[in-house]
Amino acid sequence: MTVTKKQSLVRLMIIAGAVILADQLTKALILAQLPLYERIGVTSFFNITHVLNPGGAFGMFAQQSPAVRQFFFLFVSSLVSVGLLWFYGQVAREYRFLSMGLASIFGGAVGNLIDRFRFGQVVDFLDFYIGTYHWPAFNVADSAICIGMGILFYHVILNKIPEM
After folding, report:
1. Residues 88, 60, 78, CA angle at the centre, nearest 5°?
2. How confident is the model over 103-122, as pLDDT tens digits?
3. Annotated catalytic residue: which of 23, 115, 124, 127?
4. Which of 6, 37, 68, 70 has the maximal Cβ count within 10 Å?
5. Is 127 assigned a catalytic role?
């Protein structure tokens, strides 16, 4: 079912807005309630741990100078966000599920971009592990990006991406 342009924009605002709001609220709680590097054990495989990630996914570029990281991540995140909005505009009216994934990616990108503007790094706190093997800590924005990417890959694998 094709929707109007206005309906697709409302979908974008609701999904991306919910991701940004949830991301920033959870990060504010962590910043206010949990000192840096402290952890709260939740289960035998999950902690809430306050860490700051100066790099990208999995700490990429964390060893670069702060000025290089700041420029790189602000530039790339802004560019990706603009590209996502363009792609969303191309597919949102006909590809509802794909547009939901793109809105999730956009919301996550903006959530982490806010941290980069505010702190020069990203607040992470979700810490999953098995024994002594830890997955790199992440946050709500990262989760939304991963879910959105999963939806995008689903469309790519099934060849349900419109030709541009």
Report:
1. 30
2. 999 999 999 999 999 998 99
3. 124
4. 70
5. no
